[in-house]
Amino acid sequence: MKTLKDVISLKFKTSESEGVIFHGEGQQGDYITLELKKAKLVLNLNLGSNQLGSIYGHTSVMTGSLLDDHHWHSVVIERHGRNINLTLDRHLQHFRTNGEFDYLDLDYEITFGGMPFSGKPSSNSRKNFKGCMESINYNGNNITDLAKRKKLEPSNMGNLSFSCVEPHTVPVFFNATSYLEVPGRPSQDVFSVSLLFRTWNPAGLLVFSSLAEELGTVEMDLSEGRASVHIHGSGSKRNRIDIAA
């Protein structure tokens, strides 16, 4: 396929921070890859380079953050020659690709949800997408509908299911005055706690516990957007440990 214009749109949601959303490449060195890296969206595009090295077409653009929140996110890529509009959740970013070529020349299949192993170093270091996609549209073709009706030829769909499994985690919302108190385990000599949290507030108390036998307290909090752990000793071992991240 040799195209001057492309319009690609889809919606996705995932709890994974890494994964290839779609990929296509050609024998001339052209490629287009949309992927998640560190929970950010990255578009890699190359409309062609020359063997002399005087034309270098690789272009990489990053947008968004915290996209592994298991909420639906909408992506639209509109390309006319070297001019690209990348829209993520209605946030538009315009840029021009590097190089001097206008056509995207793809010889192989386009893959959604991952990329085939090509033997290139870039292919084996990338994870496949793990999550849900819907409303996949590639240059006017409703890929989701065609895949469901098995109208894509040739296709290798692998283990796909046309439903979206919700995570089993149950979130708890706290306002400025609410808190959750649970019984401790005074007979154990190990204190262990783990949690996932999201907040727009730069400060707040996350966890607090008094240690048994009045040995002190453990506190986990946010201060100026940084998570910190404070361990206060009492009695004969009066000491304090502060760990920030």
UniProtKB/TrEMBL annotation:
Designated gene of the protein: Cntnap2_0
Signal peptide: none
Domain of life: Eukaryota
The name this protein goes by in its record: CNTP2 protein
Pfam families in the cross-refs: Laminin_G_2
Domain Laminin G: 1-164
PANTHER family linked: CONTACTIN-ASSOCIATED PROTEIN-LIKE 2, PIKACHURIN-LIKE PROTEIN
Organism: Formicarius rufipectus
CDD domains: LamG
